[in-house]
Amino acid sequence: MKTANSSNNIWLETLRYSVRTSFKSIVHEKWINLLTVLSVSIGLTMLCAFIMINSNMNSALQRWAKNFGVVVYLAEDASKEDEFILKKRFSQDADIENVNYIPKDQALEEIKKTLGSNALILDVFSENPLPSSFEFKLKSNSLDPLVVKQKAAQIGQWPGVQEVQYGEKWLSSLNTIVKAMKIVSIIFGTAIFIAVTFITYSTIKIFLHRRKEEIETLKLLGASRSFIKLPYLMEGLFIGTMGGALSSFAIFGLYSFTMYKMVEFLPAIRFIVTSLPMYVYLIIPAAGAAMSLAGSFIAIGKIRY
Predict the structure, then answer these.
(1) Are the C-beta atoms of residues 236 and 205 closer than 8 Å to each other?
(2) Is the dihedral of CA 124, 125, 128, 129 positive or negative?
(3) Which of 115, 186, 200, 296 could make a disulfide contact with 119, Cβ separation 3.0–4.6 Å?
(4) Alpha helices in the chain (DSSP H)
(5) Average pLDDT of the residues of the chain
(6) What are 164's strand-pairing partners?
(7) pLDDT tens digit string along 50-109?
(8) Are 136 and 96 in contact (CB under 8 A)?
(9) Which residue, among 82, 49, 38, 90, has the nearest Cα to 196 in the 3D structure?
(10) CB atoms within 10 A of CB 231
(11) Taking the domain 69-166, which CATH number applies?
């Protein structure tokens, strides 16, 4: 029991010493700490701004994807039975939604409305040249170009179907953009992580060099590894947390400025730009703390004991 209490007291004293020492260092080395915090903040702000842009672009692409449709044109000799079977198949397909049958007469009327005063050009046809068709949308999880191409080819083989049309090039471009955004996000996020970690590592290395004699004295006095290293970890934790907090305020300020000032000149921007979820603003300081803690941990690994 005494051993357990003694151990707890040692850890408590170590923690008190670390907090006191790291606080003194933060105050004494205020300019280099301020510069490091600002550097971390800038890095995290760049990352968060990129994530916000990425998120808004992804939302826009998802909205456009919801309007993606497939048109199935029926053959001239398609019977009522063929139409019934096709409609049943479309309705039972788990990947298909919003099935709409458009008779050829309705299609002609829609064309006339679209052409307006130019609808007279259709008078040259003695009969309705447009086929009946089915229009439907695919669910967002089925918008892979290869899946859509295979489904279109399969539908094209069904009785009564003359042609299947969909925006193949548009869908392929959309898919390429989404994949590219994901890859760039990973690369950019990794680069910021390395940069923030290196910035903190360099700062802690400077502190270690300046306190070299103090560290050697503590070693001679029999101080434990944790007693020597913990203050530097706490400094790194402070740097990352403060940098993350500043980054959260900067991102929120940028969004507020965009929504309340830029909207006066570009009213449509309120329908395009969306903020990051509120929990992200709390995650940013935690992420900054984790990155800086990693840099501090690497730096104190250089202490030979």
Answers:
(1) no
(2) negative
(3) 115
(4) 2-28, 30-66, 80-92, 104-115, 145-156, 168-210, 212-220, 225-260, 278-300
(5) 80
(6) 72
(7) 887 777 777 776 777 667 788 899 888 888 888 889 988 988 888 888 888 888 888 778
(8) yes
(9) 38
(10) 23
(11) 3.30.70.3040
Predicted structure pTM score: 0.66
- Do 138 and 128 form a contact (C-beta atoms < 8 A)? no
Which residues, in sequence order, are CB contacts of 78 under 8 Å at separation 6+? 132, 159, 160, 161, 162
CA separation for the pair 160, 148 (Å, rounded) = 20
**Residue pLDDT, tens place only, 112-128:** 777 776 666 666 666 77
Within the chain, which residue ranges are assigned CATH 3.30.70.3040? 69-166
Q: Is 222 left (phi over 0), alpha (psi -120 to 50) or beta?
A: left
**What does the alpha-carbon distance between residue 163 and residue 87 come to, in Å, rounded to a whole number?**
16
Tell me how far CA of residue 227 lies from CA of 18, 20, 172, 300, in angstroms. 7, 12, 58, 12
pLDDT reading at 189 higher than 60: yes
